[in-house]
Design goal:
The structure holds 2 protein chains of 2 kinds. Chain A is mainly alpha-helical. Helices cover 70% and strands 0% of the residues of chain A. The longest helix of chain B has 40 residues. Classes of the chains: A mainly alpha, B mainly alpha.
Amino acid sequence: MLAERGLIFPPINEILRWQDIFPTFNKIALIAVLAALIGIVLFLLAARADAKKAPTGARNLAETTVEFIEEGIVMQTLGKSGLGWTPFLLSLFIFIFLCNIPGIIPIFQMPATARIAIPLSLSLLVWVVFIGTGIKHQGMGYFGGLLWPAGVPTALKPLVGAIEFISTIFVTPFSLTVRLMANMLAGHILLVTFGLLTEALVTAETKQAFLIPTGILPFFMLIFLTGFEILVAFLQAYIFTILAAVYINNSTVGHGDEH
Amino acid sequence: MEAFSALVAAEEAAGSFDPDAKNIAAATNAGLAYGLAAIGPGIGIGYLVGKSVEAMARQPEAAGMVRTTMFLGIAFTEALALIGFVVFILVKFA
């Protein structure tokens, strides 16, 4: 058996599973509820502010975010006719970002999106929305365009149809889910690793003199990674939202060549 | 997971099971799986971002569009490395 001393990495459940605060409600659920509430309250406050004055506080933040979604996501993918999608994409972005960011906030220290439930529900929502949009805009012909992009030779139709069916119906929600979940999980495990390294070096029972100065190195790495995680939390929310916009665009204008 | 634990229990009963050997094999193979999964996306993202920077330097007025497309490309390329990471977790801990 391995000796029970030195650096022991905890089992995966210890860093990802939380005790129920009360039955069926644990820290992950708490973060998700808080994220939804904070988003709603922030935008209600912003909506109350006087639109004629120069924006301050909550309104300023909300206007910047809405402008970012419009300029950075909707205009780039859906174009001007897609501006009606702004509220949906904005809610997706705010909710995912607020679920990601507790990964670096003390006390919480856990991104709610590092467990698969929230990313999976969100990507299934996006999946339903983009298939619904396709049916609404193109009727049942949507499925034909989905399976056989224009210009496919008849001989190749079964093969192309099978590939397109799998890639749109199964791979799309799967990759959306795994991209968000694995990114946040990887970040969380990195933070745990460097936190543990620092702790193990500083509190080592052998008490060699050089261990504590050495412990500063993983500590610096921990600080650097915390900053990096802020970037990742933002970037993953952005990527999830922009991919949702791209999929919706594919349904409205027929199957493009984007993949 | 239950299927695997049943297998493990069967091996334990047969007396041929060594938990250390299983841990060592899991750690080695998990590291190998992630290392292999990271090669392709690493090359891909490097090439992608390099080309995007080139495009942005040539045509700074198109930088916004190039950046959006670059992030999309990164998202699709990176997915492979992330699936490798999930495989790592499954092999190492499950």
